[in-house]
Amino acid sequence: MDHEPSPNRPSDLRDLAKALSTLSLEMLDLARKEDWEQVQQLEEQRRQLMTRLFAEPLLPAAAFDVGNCIQEILTCNSKIVDLIQRRKNLAAEQVKTVRQGRKISQVYNSVRA
Questions:
Q1: Among 2, 5, 44, 99, whose CB has the most other CB atoms within 10 angstroms?
Q2: What pLDDT digit, counting tens, does each position of 51-70 carry?
Q3: What share of the chain is helix, strand, coil (3-state, %, to 5)?
């Protein structure tokens, strides 16, 4: 019988934690591919699962798995933030290069005139 995991049983908590870890790893993979739209969509799914996971106090029997899940999320998030920062720096450098090119072009055109 299929059932949707809920935070009422340790096995359901473990299933939710595993799903959260899997989503986090998928987000990291997509971030490495610079598929930011998909990363954002998975973040929303992950947020919904986290809301379900922490809707009630955690059961001690699932604490270890949930703790590992949280660590996995934090690790993936840190790597995703690093990728975003690198992409942001690259974009800033490209903007700077374009601006310098415009200035050079303006100087060249003013000298020619």
A1: 5
A2: 998 888 888 888 888 999 99
A3: 85, 0, 15
Inter-residue contact 49 to 20 (CB < 8 Å): yes
Domain that holds residue 27: 10-85
User: For residue 23, is pLDDT > 90?
Assistant: yes
Burial class (CB in 10 A: 0-12, 13-18, 19+), 31: buried
Could you identify the residue written with the tokens 């379900």? 52
* Total domain count, the chain: 1
Contact 27, 39 (CB under 8 A): yes
- Report field, pTM of the whole predicted structure over 0.85: no
Looking at residue 20, which CATH number applies to its domain?
Answer: 1.20.58.380
